[in-house]
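I hope you will forgive my troubling you with a question about protein structure. The matter concerns a single protein, recorded as an amino acid sequence and a row of backbone structure tokens. Please examine both parts with care and let me know of anything in them that strikes you as inconsistent. Here, with my thanks, is the record as I have it:
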Amino acid sequence: MRLAEIITTCVLALFSIYLMWKSTELEIGYVSDEGPGGGAWPFWLSAIMLICTGFIIKNSITRKSVPSQASEPLLDSYGKKMLLTVGGGILGFVALIDIISMYGAMFVFLFYYLKILGQHTWKLSLTISIVTPIVFFFFFEALMRITLPKGMPFLEPLFNFLNTIIY
């Protein structure tokens, strides 16, 4: 468990450093008459994450954190099963984005997670799986003006209908 904590924290620290470096491609300081540059939020959030990883490493080395004091393995058989089922669902989600759009993949993943893994009712699973992608569509397309992947052309009529609501 302690080794897993240290390895995970080191990976997060490296990821933080990468994001800080990548965000400097945009302005990270204050741009007069505009406000913070495009890279400011990613840079500073990554810097905060890097600082937090330092505290986690310190606590792990000094054995002050609960995982660093544990003697059991990181994952038992149930944990491995859940990692594979949830991780497999996420991989499926990513694989479906180009085929059935970000919103279709979101529907499939939410339904899989709620109905199949969570064994929730059909009503709850379908309601959340349908409403969430629609809310995300209006949030990204209408409010943020960010177009997410639409997938194969056969879904175009659905997106055209939703766009008539926006415009």
